[in-house]
Amino acid sequence: MSIKPIFIRYKFPANIKYEYSAGTVDYMDAALIQVTDDAGETGLGEVTHGQFCHEPIVGLVQHFNRLLVGHSVLEMNRTWQLMYGSTVFWNRQGIGIGVMGGIDIALHDLVGKILHLPVYQLLGGLARSKIRVYASNGLFRNPEPLIADTRRAKSLGFNAYKMRVVTPDTIIPQVKAFRNEFGDSMDLMVDAVQGSMAVPWTLAVSKRIVKRLEPYNVLWFEEPCPTEDISGYAELRASTSISIAGAESVPTAHAFKPFLDQGAFDLLQFDIATSGFTEGTRIASLAAAYRKPVAIHSWGTIVSILAGVHMALTLPNCAITEYCFMDHPFNDLLSLHRIRPEGGYIYPIAKEGLGVTFDAELVDKFKYEPIPLNFISTRERDIFL
Fold it and tell me: What distance lies between CA 225 and its chain's CA centroid?
């Protein structure tokens, strides 16, 4: 097999201003992984980390490509063990696992095409006839664009929406406006995004916010603490009736276990384009042993969205999966047919592999250049107390 990274970029137009607690989102970057077998068939994956950096992804793909020369694409479990075992000295968490996850997704897409099966069949077959999906955006400071974007989501068949926060004082006005507009016709999740903040809030701030959220029937409060603050998560969870969710940057079952042991989460959100299918299956099984649901995280293009859908359809303990709802053209350009929910659900897709495609012309049309990004701002700022 051969493996290569593909980067494409869409710059959001001036009328779209996406911002959240950690920074701003000026571009939709997609870091895709293409795996090719000896017959020339290809599979497509995605790496969430590639939205934040470039050279490390390229270098790691080159590393794993050398490692896997001559290895059968059909032996996906063995592929994961080769990648993990050969890098265990330095790759227990972080970007190395993320690149492995992207390769893992691409291999499943490729093998699905070779065997003429959808990926969910490779994962053991359906555990459910449909999976709920939520529109994930809400990168706004004021209620008006939030309401407009939620209307767009509702018109396209979603009945659940996730918003981000900008500052602690912007949260309740937005949530209140959301409930006034939609009542109980749309479920709402609130993502504090403290897992990717250079200067995160104190625990006291999150505890005050979650108490103020309780009257608004929020489905969950996501990443209200820095990812490594397991005891803070547990303390916050014990203080509220709202479900506490996390954490997208935790990549393996082994890394999730301390969170479960200490009662940090009500539901687990592993990122499909970080953990891939192989490790994602282990995480979901671990969650099931602790009687916890999973809500698959997918902050990428339709490649990772559909990876989440295929996996979710095979998991008895998956409650819902994420559909990154930023306004960009990649989802329609990379899918074999338009993917839209029906009554809030996506049904099994009768396509070989994931149901995605890649046209090489996209590289020229959506040129990528490594530049400093504002996704995570490191500017000096006051700590919210």
Answer: 18
Of 287, 277, 280, 288, nearest to 252 (Cα)?
280
Q: Sign (positive/negative) of CA torsion 279, 376, 247, 148?
A: negative
Domain identity same for 159 and 285: yes
User: pLDDT for 245-263, tens place per residue?
Assistant: 999 999 999 999 999 999 9
Question: What is residue 131's predicted lDDT score, i.e. its pLDDT?
Answer: 98
Task: Please state, in angstroms and rounded to a whole number, the distance separating the CA atoms of residues 74 and 191.
Answer: 38
70 in the same domain as 154: no
pLDDT at 14 over 80: yes
Pairing state of beta strands 160-164 and 187-191? parallel
What pLDDT is recorded for position 385?
77
- Picking from 3, 6, 104, the residue whose alpha carbon sits closest to that of residue 50 is 6
Say if 217 falls within a structural domain.
yes
What CATH number does the domain containing 341 carry?
A: 3.20.20.120
pLDDT digits (tens, 9 = 90+) for 92-111: 889 999 999 999 999 999 99
Count of alpha carbons within 13 Å of 52, Cβ hemisphere only? 15
DSSP string spanning 280-313? Answer: HHHHHHHHHHTT--EEEB--SSHHHHHHHHHHHT
What DSSP letter does each residue of 333-384 carry, written as one string?
A: HHBSS----BTTEEPPP-SSBTSB---THHHHHT--------SS--S--PPP
CB-based burial label for 257 (10 Å; 0-12, 13-18, 19+): middle
* 191 touches 224 (CB < 8 A): no
For residues 219 and 322, give the distance between their C-alpha atoms in angstroms, rounded to a whole number: 14
pLDDT at residue 381 is higher than 80:
no
